[in-house]
Amino acid sequence: MESCGGAHFMARRVADLGHEAKLISPQFVRPFVKSNKNDFVDAEAICEAASRPSMRFVKPRTEDQQ
């Protein structure tokens, strides 16, 4: 998931459901955007970035840290 305003909240909820949530900083997703920005293109870029073995992920913040 791209790290944005509500991403940390959503990552905590996803983790509560037993899944692993990984956040990617938007600056690391941007190089993978191939055309005009829209939700579909953003999703493709996030998937491409997340599949890279060297990708650095952002640790979701706790409620206290927000």
From TrEMBL:
InterPro entries: Transpos_IS110. The lineage of its organism: Eukaryota, Metazoa, Ecdysozoa, Arthropoda, Hexapoda. This is Uncharacterized protein.
